[in-house]
Fold this protein.
Amino acid sequence: MEPYVIVGASLAGAKAAEALRAEGHTGPIELIGEEPDLPYERPPLSKGYLQGKTPRAEFEVHPADWYAANDVTLRLGTAVTAIDPDGHTVTLADGGRVGFAKLLLATGASPRPLPVPGGDRPEVLKLRRVGDSERIRAQFTPGARIVIVGAGWIGLETAAAARLAGAQVTVLEVAELPLLRVLGREVAQVFADLHRAHGVDLRFGVKVAAVEDGGVRLADGTLVPADTVVVGVGITPNTRLAEAAGLTVENGVRTDEHLRTSHPDVFAAGDVANAFHPLFGKPIRVEHWANALNQPATAAKSMLGQDAVYHRVPYFFTDQYDLGMEYTGYAEPEGYDEVVFRGDVPGREFIAFWMSGGRVLAGMNVNVWDVVDPIRDLVRSGRPVDTARLADTGVPLAELAG
Ligand SMILES: Cc1cc2nc3c(=O)[nH]c(=O)nc-3n(C[C@H](O)[C@H](O)[C@H](O)COP(=O)(O)OP(=O)(O)OC[C@H]3O[C@@H](n4cnc5c(N)ncnc54)[C@H](O)[C@@H]3O)c2cc1C
């Protein structure tokens, strides 16, 4: 019997192996990943692990003995160089071939490089793998000059970890505020204020021209002194295998709501998948931990011939200093017409709702807890909501989600 093969041994891949067994698959499973480490979760790499607080074992997807106990063949440090969907084989970097009955692509995404002269200098670091986090942490000494390029989630979390370690931190961002396109002006301002309050030198509307001896050169000629430069300018889905095999690739590997690609025996899940989402009526690619955690169950069922659909509302979280937030829903940068606030925005204890035509597209709870379920219900219902009542902390959210 040919195995079910999973390419990419991280969160989505390891969860898919688990889900195949949970669904009763008794045949062979091969989980192939190019990283040398046991599958692990990445969020701690820019939070607790980067701060030296969270031990490594706490964020492994499964303990080391789980794979043998569940009869999952784990091939680590092994890159897949090609897939042949019609021939039902994958080719490994050493030239070996593995046949498959069904294939799951869980190849995730890779950080974008800094596309300027000096962007590949040794002091320029990226953050995706456990080794990256360790390399960056080693630079976070009191007084070290850390320059972060990009005020996205990774950049901001890294800035927080560096400040907590006593480093001097400058964040360079081409937009006017951090996460402006994603969050809109008011909420982006909350994150800017938070970091300024913790002593981060935030510089907006600046363009990096080069990295050179002594620091980062901006387009206006300014040299920002740096010992270490951390780049967080977004990620690109790892679609090379799918593209070369002729699968449909558009902003990731395109799948239907069952997570099946354009080939009937090949599936995709996690950061790499641009999956049709029935709630939003279009394909969306979600670069969130919860997506990589939950999509594999649907992919596994679909691989086993069950009629499974992935329709979860996207969910994301971040922790920076004493701010914790959860974001539930999906609002595109220009896709909302209003942001409604509920609670104390200056005090950083509030919920923000991104609205379109009076409907809630997404909600973000900042230092307010146990509200994800009603926010999800509001998003899912798609019904118009009275915005005055939505803003009123006296009205229970569950009542509005009704
Ligand atoms: C530092 C950091 C912090 C994050 N924090 C948060 C957070 O707070 N909240 C949140 O919701 N999300 C967060 N995320 C995002 C979350 O970690 C990702 O959404 C999740 O890791 C995606 O999992 P994945 O399995 O789809 O892909 P990945 O984690 O990218 O794993 C893909 C794996 O496939 C391997 N691979 C790729 N190509 C091949 C090949 N050809 N052959 C073999 N193996 C291959 C890769 O090496 C990798 O191991 C964070 C991500 C990072 C990097």
In short: The pocket of flavin-adenine dinucleotide is lined by residues 7-13, 32-35, 42-43, 45-46, 79-80, 106-109, 127-128, 154, 238, 241, 270-271, 287-290, 292, 316-318 (CB under 6 Å).
